[in-house]
């Protein structure tokens, strides 16, 4: 017999029960508490940030307005200031000569040491002169032969002239003999020219220095055959005293340099490797006739004495060219010139030691001094040090040059007290000691915990993957029978 299921019971089970009043109140209270906690945390964070900002502003404003700012000051002075144009150049030998042989032959001797200073006319090498000596002797013998023939022809000419004068001989024969004598005289002069040529060729077997200078590395060793057509030559000879420096200036300075050169010789200073020390001073000797289109610069040449060989060919150097001298201009230390949104200015100390910012016009300046065209007088006092806490209208106290602050070797550690003020060095050290002690204890605790975990882990690993543990030891009873463990 089939029974029909009761659908009403199923519908009642499917309908969820509504939560009670107490449950709803609890849920709302929890939500309200969470909201209050979040709002309270946000409010505390905002208040803490505001307090920190106020504290930082108070510390920045820790300089009391009624206290004077310590500064150092200087007085503008009048002096002559040279005007320089800076450039970069390279050192080159004033003269460079490749010493070559003018004849072919065997190099039988070398009379110089590599790097030796030689004078003009010193013999640097010798070529075997045997062949050229024979040619010279042959030319001399040829001239002697022609001179003897000339002497005989002159005697014949005298006889023919006497016979022609007495009508005993032909006048034509006398004239012919006169022409023969002239030809022979010309031949003798040609022999003399041949002798001179042979003598010059023989002299070329001695290779001499064409200029005074220093020899380079030898290119040919003794015993080799050298030729006049060799490009390397025997050695390279360079003149180092005086020496030349080629440098470049921007094309915008062409007019200024030409105007200064027209007034007289311009001085040129060359700096050493440190870029500060002047190692040599010379004069400007040449200006190129065109601007390099690839760089937009003009090449100039200077000559320097190089007395101590402080300059060497191929060396790169910094150069400055003196173009003029500013006479009796106002000069202040470069640190006294400050730059702001409106341009350059200086703090001038007035009455009651109150500073005023005055705009100034700077003509030129370097790392030490600045030339002031307008804005200052020699009776003013300008601030040179202490700008960090300085403003227009601030009261200052002027220190001495011996009180200038010196830079610390390393930054000093600063600590803060709980009330926001900076603590001293002793407090900072004590706080550091406490921090170090806490850190050490924490580290030791962590190390011990980590060691215990590692040991436990090792034991578990051995129990799982290691060899089977050994069976427990069997103890014997007093009667001799073995007793197994429970």
Automatic annotation (TrEMBL):
Q: Which domain of life is it from?
A: Bacteria
Domain Multidrug resistance protein MdtA-like C-terminal permuted SH3 positions: 328-386
Region of interest: Disordered: 398-486
List locations, semicolon-separated. Answer: Cell membrane
Cite the entry's keywords alphabetically. Answer: Cell inner membrane, Cell membrane, Membrane, Transmembrane, Transmembrane helix, Transport
The record places domain Multidrug resistance protein MdtA-like alpha-helical hairpin at 135-205
Does the record bear Transmembrane helix in its keywords? Answer: yes
In what ranges is there compositional bias, type Basic and acidic residues? 416-461
Q: SUPFAM superfamilies from the entry?
A: HlyD-like secretion proteins
Q: Give the family this protein belongs to, as stated in its UniProt record.
A: Belongs to the membrane fusion protein (MFP) (TC 8.A.1) family.
* Protein name as it appears in the record: Efflux RND transporter periplasmic adaptor subunit
